[in-house]
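Continuing the batch. This is chain 6 of the set; chains 1 through 5 are on the previous pages. Same settings as before, nothing changed between runs. Recording input and output for traceability.
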Amino acid sequence: MSDKKKGPKRTAVQRERQRLECLTLYLAGEWQCDIARKLRLSQSQVSRDIKAAHDEWCKRTSYNLDEQKAKRLAEIDLLERQYQQAWRRSIGTHKTTTKETNLIGETGFDGKMVVKSEKLVGDVAFLNGVLACISERCRILGTYAATKQITAQVPPKLLAAAQIDSL
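Output for chain 6:
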């Protein structure tokens, strides 16, 4: 038995065109045997073409997803650093210097400098920003535990009664 394939080889252009046609028909719900008949190919060739197109799509998609995830994670890291710096600035003592004026509103030689000192406890909004960054990073990386959502099945009679009661 010979290892050579039967029939003429397809050119690169023919191969890509037929792969696209195979994939289009397959995604439209056609069976592989029907696709093979329409395109005058063997069913195994249709299967190989669909698999090749699928593999190429997976490779491109995973690359793009990884690239997009890395970009978003870098943006989140930058934002988190800015929130942390703002948090540190919002803690401590804040000094303001003002110049007192005379009763007329003009400063003169009799005006004096007043330094007021205010103790700051930190703005919670910056901590909420850090928390949001951590949460988004966990969502992107998929490190959250799966949560189970339970939907209640309300019998129609109880539902109708509840609707009547709410009127």
